[in-house]
């Protein structure tokens, strides 16, 4: 018979029984609970009252954003384990699965705020595209929960689970469109993402075999001391894990699914994937690289720099090829633009590994916040004005407010005044790469910024060109869509007036 002394049992119980900080996990928990409520309520609501599910989802996302406020001044941890090297329960936790630091809160603000704008856009699209309301809102809230969880996860198992929770409902969101394109787009997205997940899991298993832990802080401590015979396994595991998360950011060569998926999905869902989905992958990539694999920083830093250069170049060249009369050309142009923007977002992460201050991650957070606001604003205009570029010719004569808003969003994406916040975001990224001593990448970025000016300015010029139907008034824009546009435009204007707000939100790095 096996006997265990009482002190040992007490220590074991202390290791297994953990307290949960409900305040820390409340922001992603609300969408999860609300998703179940929506799914059950859909069974009992008559068809004429299905619209209530959308407004309930909007209210829940507003509540999730409000629950970030109690966390803004703290560094809260939960689901923690005591240090294995310090006996006794009095030494406190050292490895935690969930950490609500400044980095996590900034990305959660982007995810939940972006999901709120998408929800306002979707109130219109669900009705116009005849999407099943209960399923749509359940899937959107479930995906938002995973995307909000991911920035705070600090072990590989939680990161992979949160990433799949964000991705799996997104496949179904794309497929909800019933005109035939949705199924094809979802299949491409699904097959590509499943392959990336398999690669990630293989990499995680290699890293666990070499380090003996799934916690990022323990992996970081173990990797420099890995025995020589395990070094190849460690290197391969590191590469495979980073590759899997790079796919979620639509980095080249893992970008091929993006244009067709965005064009086949409902427009709000395409906007969701371009901002919220990308933010989730980017947060996971930054956390794993900087916190877990920083001892290999020079290696993955250079690799990510090359990846960033290829991504921004391929994205901009793809955007140049979009013709105004092609079906869904506006959505496809924004899809290629989002690929190019992913390249800029990868640059500060590469700089953090290559030799810049760890605070360079703050540049990624700042640029992601800027990009999220203006890109969702552009998708909101596309939702109301049309998916072909030719439909924007003379838009100012028909709908001046929408045209001015679209011009503002496009100029922000281009980094031109009066889009001050867009220019500010690019300057922050340039500063990070220069501080890292990667002058060659700064030159490639500058060239790509010039290339992007062309297609952004051409689209902007279309808005103010005369057109045969310039006197047409167009259909009335629903109030929910006006609200999404107004929210995105107001945030863009506020950040342009005081762009330092972005740096204040992003001031906490992964090491902060």
UniProtKB/TrEMBL annotation:
Q: What is its main location?
A: membrane
Q: Please report the record's description of how this protein sits within the membrane.
A: Multi-pass membrane protein
Entry EC number(s): 7.1.1.-
> What sequence ranges are listed for the domain NADH:quinone oxidoreductase/Mrp antiporter transmembrane?
154-451
Source organism of this protein record = Streptacidiphilus pinicola
Q: Cellular component GO terms, alphabetically?
A: endomembrane system; plasma membrane
What InterPro entries does the entry give? NADH-Q_OxRdtase_suN/2, ND/Mrp_TM
Give the UniProt keywords, A-Z: Cell membrane, Membrane, NAD, Quinone, Translocase, Transmembrane, Transmembrane helix, Transport
The Swiss-Prot or TrEMBL record describes its family as follows: Belongs to the complex I subunit 2 family.
Which GO molecular function annotation, any one, does this entry have?
NADH dehydrogenase (quinone) (non-electrogenic) activity
Localization, per the record, is:
Cell membrane; Endomembrane system; Membrane
One Pfam match: Proton_antipo_M
Q: What class of enzyme is it?
A: translocase
- Taxonomic lineage: Bacteria, Bacillati, Actinomycetota, Actinomycetes, Kitasatosporales
Q: Which domain of life is it from?
A: Bacteria
User: Which sequence ranges are marked TM in the entry?
Assistant: 22-45, 52-71, 103-124, 136-152, 158-177, 189-210, 230-257, 269-294, 300-321, 333-354, 360-382, 403-425, 437-457, 477-497
Question: A GO term (biological process) for this protein?
Answer: ATP synthesis coupled electron transport
Q: Does the keyword ATP-binding apply?
A: no
What is the protein's known function? NDH-1 shuttles electrons from NADH, via FMN and iron-sulfur (Fe-S) centers, to quinones in the respiratory chain. The immediate electron acceptor for the enzyme in this species is believed to be a menaquinone. Couples the redox reaction to proton translocation (for every two electrons transferred, four hydrogen ions are translocated across the cytoplasmic membrane), and thus conserves the redox energy in a proton gradient.
Q: What is this protein called?
A: NADH-quinone oxidoreductase subunit N
* Keyword Translocase recorded: yes
Q: Which reaction does it catalyse?
A: a quinone + NADH + 5 H(+)(in) = a quinol + NAD(+) + 4 H(+)(out)
- The protein's assembly and partners: NDH-1 is composed of 14 different subunits. Subunits NuoA, H, J, K, L, M, N constitute the membrane sector of the complex.
